[in-house]
Design goal:
- This protein is α/β, with parallel strands linked by helices.
- The protein has two domains: about 250 residues, Alpha-Beta Barrel (TIM Barrel), CATH 3.20.20; about 60 residues, no CATH class.
- It contains twelve helices and eleven strands.
- The strands form four sheets. Strands 8-5-4-1-11 form a five-stranded parallel sheet. A two-stranded parallel ribbon has the order 2-3.
- Strand 6 and strand 7 form a beta hairpin.
- Helix 6 packs antiparallel against helix 7, helix 6 packs parallel to helix 8 and helix 10 runs parallel beside helix 11.
- The longest helix is centred in the last third of the chain and has 19 residues.
- Bound molecules: zinc ion.
- Zinc ion binds next to strand 4.
């Protein structure tokens, strides 16, 4: 990943045009934080940044739509640049912070719910990790052949970065690592679940937002055998339909991870489309089951000094730095 200052400086030099003809840019968001909030594991944008992003789009004559609406426009061959907003995982802050901002801007979005965790009121694995590191009492703990330093916020952030790659694994490996970590750190209480309740999710659909599927428990799908993938995918479509009264039309693969079996599971569950985490823009001929999405994080919008840079944010949304960013490491990598 290239540095923010370099990207900001580059954005001064080039005004990259929006894509020509009919094109759909799908933006990938996760959480929406209160301005000034500093969580150990940051997965999303500040509400001020989301507001500024919508204002930028409005000045460009763009009103965000849902993924299904964006795809319908592409299918009609409606010319112009269309932008769809998406929010992954189903956090409560999507309802309490994003929804009022979207409503105020006349914008719509697609929200992908981790249905099984919402149902069980369980935190996703990365929140378990952050909670364990945040609540551990000891300043240093031996774990997995190394010593985790936890003396201050910076040390805990380093420990988190050290542990994250090993947790991008099959559910059983992930579970064993997390349980081992909690035992080593002496953390007994579960991480609080910050996902929305079904009641809160109903407020999203009532406001005209689209609800999509995001599996039951957020596994890396390609680590699972075909049958288990089916349970995760079909199970999430069924549970959302049961709780919210409408079957999702699409799915976001957790972490973008998928293989041929995941695509088949999505089709069999009745999905009309699926989004990935591969950056890029979608043209009229795009494969609806491997739609590209672009992250539009704080880091993609804030210039030197931490102020919203319209020029940088616009360049990022136009994909000026897609080729410069390596995957899966870097800002494009979600959990
Ligand atoms: Zn996710």
């Amino acid at each position: 990943m290239i540095g923010r200052t370099l990207r900001w400086a580059s954005s001064l030099l080039v005004r990259r045009p929006w894509p020509r003809g009919a094109a759909l840019t799908i933006v990938r968001h996760h959480r929406v934080y209160a301005d000034g909030e500093r969580p150990l594991y940051r997965l999303g944008v500040a509400e001020g940044v989301l507001r500024a992003q919508l204002a930028l789009l409005r000045r460009e004559g763009l009103v965000p739509v849902t993924v299904s609406e964006g795809l319908a426009r592409l299918a009609e061959g409606r010319p112009g640049h269309h932008v769809a907003l998406t929010f992954d995982d189903g956090y409560a802050d999507n309802v309490t912070r994003a929804l009022p901002i979207l409503a105020g801007a006349g914008a719509r979005a697609t929200f992908f719910l981790t249905a099984g965790l919402i149902e069980a009121r369980r935190a996703p694995w990365w929140d378990e990790l952050a909670h364990a590191l945040e609540t551990a009492r000891a300043p240093a703990v031996p774990f997995a052949g190394t010593t985790l330093e936890l003396g201050d916020a910076a040390a805990r952030a380093r420990a988190l970065r050290l542990l994250l790659p090993g947790l991008r694994a099959a559910p059983a490996t992930q579970r064993a690592l997390l349980d081992g970590l909690r035992a080593a750190l002496g953390v007994a209480d579960p991480a609080p679940c910050e996902l929305a309740t079904w009641e809160e999710c109903r407020r999203l659909s009532a406001a005209g937002m689209e609800i999509g599927a995001h599996t039951l428990t957020h596994p890396f799908l390609s680590t699972l055998p075909p049958g288990a993938q089916r349970e995760e995918v079909a199970g999430s479509f069924g549970l959302v339909e049961e709780r919210l009264g409408a079957r999702p039309r699409g799915i976001a693969f957790p972490g973008g991870d998928h293989d041929a079996d995941s695509l088949e599971a999505a089709r069999d569950a009745g999905a009309a489309w699926a989004v990935t985490t591969r950056a890029g823009v979608n043209g009229p001929g795009a494969d609806p089951f491997t739609l590209r999405r672009r992250a539009w994080t704080d880091g993609a919008c804030l210039g030197p000094g931490g102020r919203f840079s319209e020029r940088l944010a616009r360049a990022e949304l136009a994909g000026a730095f897609d080729a410069w960013r390596a995957r899966p490491a870097g800002a494009e990598a979600a959990p």
